[in-house]
Amino acid sequence: MGSLVLQDDDRLRIMEFGTMCGIPSALNAVIKLGIPDILSSSQDAPLSSAEIIAQIPACGSSGSGANLDRILRVLSSVGVFQESLHDGGIRKYGVTPLCRYLVTNPSNGGLPLSSWVIANQDVVFMKTWEFLYQSVTTGADPFTAAHGKPLFDLTADNPRFRGIFDSAMSDNSNAYMRLIVEAYDGFQGVRTLVDVGGGIGNSLRVILGRHKGIKGINFDLPHVISKAPAFPGTL
Ligand SMILES: C[S@@+](CC[C@H](N)C(=O)[O-])C[C@H]1O[C@@H](n2cnc3c(N)ncnc32)[C@H](O)[C@@H]1O
């Protein structure tokens, strides 16, 4: 006789995979609402959803604490925030080490990667996922299938998305380049350094900041270079 399985971990995992998009969507929402910065500014005192909403100008008088609680509880379940229960059953939320990557203010310990989340959740990238299936049936690149052109042709034509993409690349390279220049001695003795596909030049900026004698050349597409800020040491 077969046994009734009430707690089937595999079934729960597949359900979880099917709804995983909720996590990046919730991250996207809290970043746009500025919540990691609000919580990191509250000097380690956790805040309720009502207290958080009171600090979000866009909420005005129509902010929904119930909806914010649901979003914050989901993100607390994966360690982005820390949830605690207080008198009267009020839930409050504080920052965690993971949350530091979403805080934009460096004086609050921010190591921002929020633009990375924002870029990946942008409608431009989200639209490409719909074409994953066709990438197998037709062999087409999903990005080109979704937008009619490859990624770097789109960034040339779409200044809104280009800004988001360039910030995401910079935030990402910032984090690891700071570690690389601490540990890597291969830049010593280099006189000219070319960063091919250097984006708006962040990697070069970190390297030249550490190795003052190097002359740097940031090589990228014209529409990227035209927005790249100048800094000492570049030719
Ligand atoms: C993944 S991003 C890397 C950005 C950069 N390394 C950083 O850390 O911010 C790739 C870069 O390659 C550039 N790129 C793409 N095609 C290129 C080409 N044909 N010539 C020069 N740069 C190109 C893009 O504009 C983009 O900035």
TrEMBL record:
GO biological process, one term: methylation
UniProt keyword Lipid metabolism present: no
InterPro entries assigned: COMT-like, COMT_C, COMT_dimerisation, SAM-dependent_MTases_sf, WH-like_DNA-bd_sf, WH_DNA-bd_sf
GO molecular function, one term: protein dimerization activity
All copies of domain O-methyltransferase dimerisation, residue ranges: 23-104
Start and end residues of each O-methyltransferase C-terminal domain: 129-231
Swiss-Prot/TrEMBL keywords: Methyltransferase, S-adenosyl-L-methionine, Transferase
Superkingdom of origin: Eukaryota
Keyword Transferase: yes
PANTHER family referenced in this protein's UniProt entry, alphabetically: O-METHYLTRANSFERASE
Name of protein: O-methyltransferase domain-containing protein
The organism's taxonomic lineage, starting at the top: Eukaryota, Viridiplantae, Streptophyta, Embryophyta, Tracheophyta
